[in-house]
Amino acid sequence: MDLAAAFTRDPQAAPHPVRRDATAAAVFALLAAVLALTVEDGRRPDALGWALLLAAHVPLAWRRRAPMPVLLAVVACVAPYHAFDYMHLAPIPASMTALYTVASTGRPKRTLIVGLSVTSLTLTMQLFVNPHETVELLRVSGWVIAMLAFGAGIRLYRQLVAGVVERAERDAERKVAEERLRIARDLHDLLAHSITLIGVQTSVAAHVLVADPDRLDREALVKALDGIAETCREARSEVRTTLDVLRATPEGPLPDLASLPDLVRSSGAELMVRTGAAKVPAAVGAAAYRIVQESLTNAVRHGSPGADVRVDVGLEKEMLRVRVTNGGSASGGTAGSGYGILGMRERARSVGGTLSAGPRDGGGFEVTAALPLAGREVTV
Length: 380
Description:
Blueprint: H1 3-8, H2 17-38, H3 47-55, H4 67-83, H5 92-105, H6 108-129, H7 134-211, H8 218-239, H9 260-267, E1 270-274, H10 282-302, E2 309-315, E3 319-326, H11 330-334, H12 339-349, E4 354-359, E5 365-372
């Protein structure tokens, strides 16, 4: 088991806590038996001593479920064990484990009360058994305080890690929400254009019908109605890509593949566009543009100086493929927070596509997206 994970994970969330703690208790009991038989630190346990020593380890199986009751049960066995002057070192691992559990799972006030109580009881017991052993008194008290401090430190560390993880998750959710809002703004712009065009074409058709019915220009009417139908089909396809309620004001024209040369030229990358005369839906073109834009930003920000960056956009069986490769070090592509990749995945997903990003063989970093030309409904 990863030691760092053991210290940072919530003890209540560990899998099979009773089974794990029962195994640890058995190991501690075996260690206590070895110490009782080999170390000269008080008299050897008799039947009563062995019963108290082994019984002190049984409650440890439930230490994470009920820390305070377990500590009280351990003290109830260990206190008479020490009072009868049995080998004092043997039950120390069990006692320290119970103390650590209380300190690492409870609040500081409870830890302080437990520390004062256990220290007082320990000192009283030690004075009763060995009243002239001042060094031993200090040693025992130091172990109790040190274990409580260690447990309290682990609890604070877990809280710190949990807070960092929570903030990172909130930041990731915020970045995704921002990307979705930007997608919504793009689609808002597109749909506003489509609806305006439908209104104009409808006005043309109405004018043709009303202006001079006796000399009806059927060709102009059919052309206007065909334009309305085509615009409706395009708008319906784009509506399917909407992830959330379209709101806010558009911030500028919707980018498309025609804007890629200017974007790539400013970054010094190489561009190859292989779309021919095919018509790429506006939402797909905008998604491809944003993916290339974020990829180039990451390449400039994290890539090594003078890295060979290439952008390849082409059509493959009703699919627009976007591939951005960075010839710099692979670590340069992954050194950021990862929010840019989250945003690109969300952008690809908005049009029913997929995106993968990661180091490539031979060094460097690669972003690959597959964006279907046909409109797909997106499951949120």
